[in-house]
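[audit] Reproducing an earlier prediction to check determinism. Same input, same settings, fresh worker. If the tokens differ from the archived copy the diff job will pick it up downstream; this log only records the rerun itself.
[audit] input (1200 residues):
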Amino acid sequence: MSGIAETELDIIDFEFKLQKIRTQITSKLDNQKHLALILSAVEENISDQSNGSSISPIAYLVSFLSLLDQSIDTKTDDILDQSLATSSSYFLDLTLPFVPKTLLKSKFPEILSKLASIITNSNAEAPLIKSAIGSLETLLIAQDINSWNNTSLNINPRRGFGGLLEFSLDPRPKVRKRAQEAIHKILANPPPGPAIEHVASGSGAEFAIKTIVQLLNTKTNQKNNKEISAQLIHSLQLVSSITSANTWPTSKIEHLCDLLLEISKTNDQYLVSAAFNGFEGLFNSMTDEIDNDKFVKVLNIIFDLKPSINDSHLAAAWIAVVAKGVTSYSKVEPLECIKKIPEIFKILTPFFASEISDIYVSVSQCFISILMEGIPDDYLLLPNGADITGEIYEEVDEIITTTSEILTELLNVKFGSAAKEILEVFTVAFTKLRSRANPDFLKPLEIIGEWRTNEDFEFKLEAEAVIASAITELGPETVLSVLPLNLLDPKKTGRAWLLPLLRDNVRFARLGFFTEQFIPLIDSFNSKLQSLDKNSVHYKIFETIVDQIWSLLPHFSDLPSDLQKSFTDKFAQDLSSLLYSNVELRVNICHALRLLVESNVTYASGALNDDKLLTQTFPISESQSNIEYLSSKSSNILAVLFNVFSQTVPESRNFVLETIDAYLSITKPEDLQNTFNKVSVLLKNAFDEEDKQTKPLAKGTSKLSVTMMDLVVAMAKYVPESSYIALFTIFNQTVKSSDPLLQKRSYRIISKLIESESGKLALVKFVNDIEKVIIESSESTHSTAKTSRLQAINTILEILPSDHLHFIPSILSEIILATKDVNEKTRELSYSTLISMGKLMHNGGVIHNSQIPGFDSETPDSQASLTEYFTMISAGLAGGAQHMVSATITAISCLVFEFKDIVETDLLVEISSTVELFLTSNSREIVRSTIGFVKIAAISLPEDIVRPTLRTLLENLLRWSHEHTGHFKSKVKHIIERLIRRFGFETIEENFPEEDKKLLTNIRKSKARAKRKAAEEGEEDEDSKTQSRSKSSNAYEEVLYDSEDEDSNDEDESQQNNSKSNKKSNQFIVESKDSPLDLLDRQAMSHISSSRPTNKKGRKLNVSEFEKDGKLHFAEGNNKDDEDPLKSITSGINAYVDAVRSGPVKGQKNKFKFKRGAKANNDDGFDEDNDEPVKQRERTKFVPRGNKIGKPKPKARKKF
């Protein structure tokens, strides 16, 4: 049955291809028309002979072969009719795949002889040969193993395949490419038989190797011969065609590798690229386990061809081939590949000592590629009794140990020139091996940490990247055991620079480590602060360090591994106390509390299921248990957060609200109901108290009722169904409040409810009452609450039943007027609301006009449609107020742009002609909106609507071409330019008023100048430039407010870097007279720099060191270190101070800028007259990042 179905599908496919040609009978292209005519004639002839029965592919084959015979002289094999031969060959190529293979086998000699007369003809053109190659491909694929092995016949498949090999090197690109594709397809589809490889693969490989050898010999004698290089590239493309079919003979692999590497020595980048493609094809083809021996042989051959470490031509190319080979081998035998990694790294290690930068950069990238792609993540898992046994785990562990020893050797002074690249390798090693890097990689981590401690070390950023990856993968506890902070111990090296690294990279750590190590550290610094002057520099330094330590708390709260053990009631109480007492810590503590919930919720939802190592060490069930644990404490935490929220100024409490939202999401329904009831009581009491209160509130404070409403809005989408009646009661009472802040929050209740399924059901249930409230409250809406009101209306429209469409005309005039609002967000919402209404009207339904306010109760119903919707809106054009007319035109413009493709043409014509009449109005406000509509019409409406009205449109439009007010002149000019682009200059000129032709001439000249200028500067014509768009995401506003002035984007000229990449690296030793460099010391690498060291300049004398009489004063006997209570703080703190002083400061509009010049070295940031710099609050939106859970970079955030 499947065979019959497959045959039927083939016939359908064949008929589809023929039908496509039949439709080209009227084509303007001669070749397409010619094919259609021939097909028509053939089908007519076949139909006459078959008496109307269906035509089979075999009948077509016979007809096309007959046509081919007619086009060729059977005696001389000359082509009599090139066009007929090409068409016949084309149809043969199309038909043969649908002919039964048995027929192709039996008629092979006859068909091949006819094709051979074409292929061997020197006068045959490329299209004819391409089709003949396609036919030959199908013919050869159909042959069985006996046909291929039968060489006694004069005409056999091997001869046909030999012809394809010759054409694979043809100088004509399309012929050559088609032949190579045919060879690949033939070899990729071997005939059934005992051999895996195709029987013709050997002859193909021999032909390719023979050709390459001959060309290389010729190239040696004729250097810089481009023709020979081109032929070599063609031969390598043939190699890629064979290898990518996985048919290159094993016996010829070594010879091929020799040739490919020989070609890689050349300076011709195209040849080298082609050689690499040959290697890649060879590696990619060996993806089956049966090719393991072949793969090992190839790798061994490549390793035997190892070049010199300073071979500028071959080394980098050889390294790239090694990287590709090893990563490909890992897909065949991953465990065997892992076992070979130490051996491979030993072979590659000497290349890090090369004097040529390209070579040690290449070998570093090779190390990185092998680490990332050569070690599958599955083999880094703990023993699981299935795929990873205890034996495999131990094997991999030994390999990691050996690898760490090899990589540690790279931290030697003899590899100093490649220090930057070596550090990058270690960064990748920690990222890949993760927890399996512990403890083997702790020794190199310690060395790199000591390098970073040296302030003169050149590659601090790269060293920090290594330490950062170690913090992320091994955890802060492990890293700090090797590189302790030492902030309190005067005898040890301080590492305050680790604090920012910890802040940015701690993930999935133990929360208990923070409470055990950092809380005591904070207490110690706080005790020091009590003994210092608050205005002193050192006080500010210590205070900053304390803030930095507290900034670690949120990251220790990012999916902690010991949440239930460490987040105890006592710890929660301590945090609560700090929330009340220390305002500066509220951001960090709230962020930490929120991340405790969100990281576990995100993880429990399966966001990191792809991370097998993480899910093995931290099961999803653990995060679910953590959520239940936090849920049991959420009521108490929410009580604290509610109090903190009410005590925080409105402008700076959104982060508290976000934390509240996180805990509301996991609170049990019964606890939520109790909490909501308490908030509702507090809201009612606040209303009662405020009614009695007569004194105005102090500046910067907020009404308690507004604060409680914020909490009600936050709880709206979480409260259980039993609380909905109370919630809607609050909405009903506050929506008409005289306080705009309460009004805004009242409408937000509706917007919040739509975010949950239960809330959406509640809205549907109470939609009738909500509609009435919204309609009745339209007159009492404050201007500042319009945005929230429109959001609520949009929410209602999302769930509006089809029998409630009377709600649309009831509020339509309000939405139309909102399109002219000064607030951009209100305008955007009005556009989206109009479009939502239009979609509802387009979906159809009944409008109960009797329920519209102001309509008679006996008004008949009407059917909803877009035509009816435009009729409703057009009523605003008859309004007496200019503002209403202008808003209506703006609304129509938006809707025409949105629905132009589905509105009837007659309606579009009527709307367009009606609106354009307002160009004759004397009201600039109305005309401004009308010009906007004209622009929309000129750009988006069909040409057959705009073209007939061009003359009238231009006459009315040009009335305002001399009006500068409101940029009317530039707007009109821009519309005319767009019309010229669309209809052509001649059409516009014909319809242009005679008295305004001067403007048209001006536009034409300016366009010509712009084109000339663009041509001179080598830029694109301005018509083809993509102009920058409005910030608005609304497509309508993007078109309406599209740039009307020609932008001139001056691009800075990029400076050319002429330095050669192969230049030998310059290395300098940084040392002092007191401590000469010890090359045997493992710290020697940190004293090697790629830039020439300079002597430190003498200290400039301060003005204060001169006496009043101008004499120089030398201070004697004053040892400030003896008096300095902070002398125990080592260079780590000093470096930290420098970093703080030279860090960014806030300028205008809260933008960060860096100190320049003399300002960079002063202490203004810690001056006694200045307060502590305001710390930027971190953005607290939670997202997963990388293979751990984290938060995004801070951004400015609008207040709630």
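[audit] rerun output stored. Observation attached for the diff report: The radius of gyration is 40 Å.
[audit] end
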